[in-house]
Write a structure and sequence with these properties.
Layout: E1 2-6, E2 12-16, H1 17-34, H2 38-46, H3 49-52, E3 58-60, H4 66-79, H5 83-88, H6 93-107
Parallel strand pairs: 1-3
Antiparallel strand pairs: 1-2
Amino acid sequence: MSGFIILNDGRAWTASDRAFDAIMEALAETILDSGTGNALASWLLDQRSLLKGPGMGSVDLRELTPANQERLLATIEFVCNVPKLTENLSAWSDKVHLLVRMVEAFKQGEPPMLLNPDMKDLVPPTRRRAGPGWENSI
């Protein structure tokens, strides 16, 4: 079973449940260490396959508030450059680096299907709202 992170342009990163959960934990830890986004960190931990069930871990960035989208994208890029975190993720280093490359490609505006190796197509948007912060918006 796999967990997914879906980027704003519909490309999707996928990894085993254990790898997905490890990424969620590393992202949450980094956000907590930064002193901002405690609600986002807590929410990310709640998305782990360990809690949701095998194959049910998923984060679609398009469902997050714009501020949380930016925070999460920046955190994904940062996680690969923190030795303590990359040590904890070393078993999945190829997947971690793929995720960062996918985020960079998205930010550079590259066509999503040029780097979407685990998917046959783009994931369509759900138009749902998820994660913290929506309660404060109109």
